[in-house]
Amino acid sequence: MKDQGFEAIWPPGRATGGERACVRGVEGKILVSNLRNIYESGQFALSVEIFPPKTEAGDADLAKTLRSLGVYQPAFVSCTYGAGGSTQGRTLHWCRMIQEELGLTATAHFTCVGASQSGLRDWLDKAWESGVRNIMALRGDPPKGETAFVPAEDGLRYANELVALIRSHRPEMGIGVAGYPEKHVEATCPDLDLANLVRKVQAGADAVFTQMFFDNEHFFRFREKAVKAGIKAPIVPGVMPITSFERIKRISEMCGTEFPADLSLRLEAAKDNPEDEFEIGIAHAIEQCRELLESGVPGMHFYVLNRAQACQRIFDALGLGSAVAGPA
Question: How many CB atoms lie within 10 A of CB 202?
Fold first, then answer.
């Protein structure tokens, strides 16, 4: 499949002003922010997460989404892997496009799945050569149909081991890791899950980004326990706007995420009316984000599912994107 970037959607030189706020330094080089510097600045950091499409039509749609969200100048855009690391090359392709065409900092997802330690180091070198300076370090999910994670030969079993490998091989990289306000689905209890997070931070993580949640009390309890456990890294809430209840329910069931009862009832009642369903989801996200902002979070990380409309509504309602961290 041919890689399609912004060319068809955004020809060079066409966009101006806020639509293409590309920050360049000496000799026109893009200045890429490091995660640790982003949060050390003390400014609120808005960030968004996308995934590599599988088709050229999907590429074109994602280019439009990134153009729309780029106006809000997120501190960084993260790009996921496909299942089993199946889109590693596409992840780096989109990270390059985000930085070279949009002028924003990119963060590449990186997992232990299916790779030896030498293979992991090779990929890190490719990412570095592509201009990537930030990694979201995750263990990764077992292959489809399997319930247990089995490391590759001479591979890694845990995310803290991956963080340590990154920090050893490419110490300049910014490293983000995942946190689970309602615990990881494989964890036997929240305390053990928190101990895993402590190990990831001790191994060298710069910031923690949480799985989505729909009840802020889960986040507040998680943050309090993490701080008591000695975690000093910024803890950034992950937000997924509800645009389709059926879709979010499927994702939530996989992740072990709880829905507030009243929200679930309202969405169920609106399931035959997509417009009402969308409005209920957006209203909940705005209320949720407003409370998070009031609690002093260092930023918010939005799982945009490659669509801009919901996030645009939320960002506009809350005035987000006007005070993000600049380049390091």
Answer: 14
53-70 pLDDT per residue, tens: 989 999 999 999 999 999
Q: Is 289 exposed, middle or buried (0-12, 13-18, 19+ CB in 10 A)?
A: buried
Q: Which among 40, 49, 253, 268 is annotated as catalytic? A: 49
For β-strands 45-50 and 76-79, DSSP reports them as parallel
The Cα 44–Cα 208 span in angstroms is: 15
Contact 177, 137 (CB under 8 A): yes
The single-letter code of the amino acid at 296 is G
User: Average pLDDT for residues 21-32, to the nearest whole number?
Assistant: 50
Compute the distance between CA of residue 101 and CA of residue 95 in angstroms, rounded to an integer: 10
49 counts as catalytic: yes
In a domain, 323, yes or no: no
**Bridge partners for 77 per DSSP:** 48, 106
Is residue 256 situated within a structural domain? no
Q: Which domain holds residue 146?
A: 17-242+297-318
Residue 271 located in a structural domain: no
- pTM of the model as a whole: 0.87
Is 48 inside a domain boundary?
A: yes
| Nearest alpha carbon to residue 91 among 62, 125, 53, 121 | 53
Q: What is the CATH number of the domain that holds 81?
A: 3.20.20.220
On the CB side of 1, how many CA atoms lie within 13 Å of its CA? Answer: 15
- What is the number of domains present in the chain? 1
Beta bridge partners of 110: 137
